[in-house]
Specification:
With 252 residues, the protein is of the alpha/beta class. It has a single domain, classed as Alpha-Beta Barrel (TIM Barrel), CATH 3.20.20.70. It has twelve helices and eight strands. An eight-stranded parallel sheet has the order 7-6-5-4-3-2-1-8. The longest helix has 18 residues.
């Protein structure tokens, strides 16, 4: 039985005081229903949010990291630096990183390997464009991305990864894949994991759905057999909506 996960990607939003207040509100209202709650503020707010969550079960993620432990990489942050701030998760391969910053599948794989080496759990994002879906290339696209991101991993390492299916055409657009569309991709990916690793790994790895996730559509998504939670954008910027997603996830 996989633990439901609701992870909030705050992206490049909120001032320092707003981020701390949001973290405190989420910590104060977090339901004790077995759902794993994760928040990912911008890197300059990580230290302050860490303090706000110090006595809370809410877990902390970074939105990105570099594969090197240190070096001449201006503007980057490394795994050891994140560990010092009690960060335990890191979002990797988000479509915005791929699109706006040119991150390649090879680069994402290097980051995944580095994160695992630093005992950080990667939340690895992948998803198809609208043109991919219309051309019926969804399965080929997501399989390629997942295999590339997990290249070189053992089954034991792969079981520490969280996958997040985020169809690009649904991110921030208000459009959401239907529960059936999302379930089809999630089920397909379990088959890929089984082929690449083994049955245990396929059944262990959580696969989240992301893409305009809101309380009004989450209940029909989270009840699908192979959808283990959500990677949430806009709805994670308000404590009420984020906590409602957590309550929904805990009622399945």
């Amino acid at each position: 039985m996989r633990t439901p996960i609701v992870a909030g990607n705050w992206k490049m939003n909120l001032g320092m005081d707003e981020a701390v207040q949001l973290a405190q509100d989420i910590a104060d209202g977090a339901p004790e229903n077995g759902v794993k709650l994760i928040v990912a503020p911008v890197s300059v707010h990580l230290a302050s949010v860490t303090e706000a969550l110090a006595t809370s079960p809410v877990l902390l993620s970074s939105q990105n990291m570099h594969w090197a432990d240190s070096g001449a990489y201006t503007g980057e942050v490394s795994g050891p630096m994140l560990r010092e701030l009690a960060v335990r998760y890191v979002i990797l391969g988000h479509s915005e990183r791929r699109q706006y910053f040119g991150e390649s599948d090879e680069e994402i794989n290097r980051k995944v390997l580095s994160a695992l080496d630093q005992e950080l759990r990667p939340i690895v994002c992948f998803g198809e464009s609208l043109s991919d879906r219309e051309a019926k290339r969804t399965e080929a696209k997501v399989e390629f991305q997942v295999r590339a991101a997990l290249a070189g991993l053992s089954a034991e390492q792969a079981q520490k990864v969280i996958l997040a299916y985020e169809p690009i055409w649904a991110i921030g657009t208000g459009k959401t894949a239907s529960p059936q569309q999302a379930q089809q991709v999630h089920r397909f990916l379990r088959g890929v994991l089984k082929e690449r690793f083994d049955v245990e790994t396929a059944q262990t790895v959580p696969i989240l759905y992301g893409g305009s996730v809101k309380p009004h559509n989450f209940d029909t998504l989270i009840t699908q057999d192979d959808i283990d939670g959500g990677l949430v954008g806009g709805a994670s910027l308000k404590a009420d909506s984020f906590l409602e997603l957590a309550r929904i996830a805990g009622n399945i």
